[in-house]
Amino acid sequence: MKVQSYAGGAWQVGEGGGTALVDPAFGREIARVSSAGIDFGAALTFARTSGSPALQAMTYADRALLLGRIAEVLAAHRDDYFAIALENSGSPSVDASIDIDGAIFTLKHFAKIGAPLGASRYLLDGGMLRLGKDESFQAQHLWRPCRGVAVLINAYNFPAWGLWAKAAPALLSGVPVLAKPATATCWLAQRMVEDVIKADVLPPGALSIVCGDAGALLDALGPEDLLSFTGSAKTARLLRSHVNVLRNSLRVNVEADSLNSALLGPDSVVGSAEFDLFVKEVVREMTVKAGQKCTAIRRILVPSGQADAVAEALTARLARVVVGDPRETGVWMGPLVNAAQRDDALQGIERLKREAEVIYDGGPDFAPLGGDPNRGAFVAPTLLRCERPLQAQRVHDVEVFGPVATLMPYGAFDEALALARRGQGSLVASVFSADENLLARAAVELADSHGRVLVVNPTVGGTHTGHGNVMPMCLHGGPGRAGGGEELGGLRSLAFYHRRAAIQGPVSVLDALARHAAPLTL
Ligand code: NAP
After folding, report:
1. What does the alpha-carbon distance between residue 82 and residue 370 come to, in Å, rounded to a whole number?
2. pLDDT tens digit string along 457-480?
3. What's the angle, vertex CA 482, arms to CA 343 and CA 484, rounded to 5?
């Protein structure tokens, strides 16, 4: 099978042998993909000239309805997507659900919050501003949808959610989408797009997908287009410094890698409810999607007096994690996406070992249940301990994209906050404590260096949404190392797909503009 692209309003098969997609539990080829020969310029022109005008002729409410219909189409094919996630990503159903059901949930959420925007075609920004001596001449800022194409380049770990979490606010804004999923797992994204195209939900040109190498895609971008990227900091640097991106001052959003931390409060001792919640969450974050989550906990910050107890509790839970081929009964954690990612993770562990000691890695007898132990991309959950994290460098800098985290003891709580900030800007930090003053102080202290801060006390032990879960109503992104981007956050996400302009003129004209604007001030 060769995974096709949908560009210029037609299905296209890339030329040549292309790249192999594999079943990561066995390392065997399941499909091939190539983008060679696809005319990126023509694909973008078609989206700009057909997709954009058709979408922008609609109102926000019309487009919100389309998102709801996309969610229905995807829900109808959910079982097929789980099968692809199993085969191409090695995902147990819990992991596949985070990606696939997460995508459907996000689309439904945007359909819901988009509907009340009603029959308007633009949004207001603040109120009227008096400019002259009297009130006759004033200014009003407004947000107008961009006319270009949103080019969405995504990472391999969320082929479904990664696509729709970006596409939902773009389409709601009236901006056509050209998706470029990561090659390794593009099959799922491609299949979802295929189902939506077949269902004839969207106008021609509103949704395209290019599977395989990005090739000269960036060269074809024009000044009205938008680039939203998720992936490694290394690729982000390449994209940001691309000559065409610089020449056109393209708007770029980057979600990159992140050394997220979880902090256990100084008041939390072994046996307390928050201690148990903390341990449970760390193990969940290390093992869900085999740690291939940009938001996963990489650094575990605990009071030095509790470090041994936390290490013991984590080790005991990790020892119960069954790793293997998700088709086998009882397997909790699957493989990484392919052998290259496995080797990358193992090398990363070696780098961390220069500053930290391994305290759990499944031992010398570690063996996956089922799958191919040699060609399969299995990595045992690995817990390290760094005794002097303030003096260390790598543990705050090397993102091992797998089931790997490092335990770090701290002295005073301010030291823990300083260690969290050593991640150089992260997507998320979580703080577990029964002390509400401490939780509130930590949230404010961490808010400038983190896109999201989760604070947990025992009252929300059974209701919080988790350290790693990205909720569509909350901001996703982080400063510095995490890419400096902002995604989601409900209707806040529309700002990226709109342009703001100041309109200066007679009050009567501005009044009329305001009356026809959507009932929302971004
Ligand atoms: P990656 O290697 O940086 O690739 C990301 C995307 O960029 C892929 O679609 C890739 O295409 C494409 N790409 C690579 N080189 C390109 C170029 N020169 N021009 C245009 N596109 C190019 O990242 P990954 O290995 O897929 O994902 C893992 C990383 O993503 C981790 O570091 C993780 O932390 C990060 N991540 C961040 C978030 C977040 O929201 N902050 C979410 C998930 C993952 P090909 O696949 O064809 O090379």
Report:
1. 19
2. 999 999 999 999 999 999 999 999
3. 145
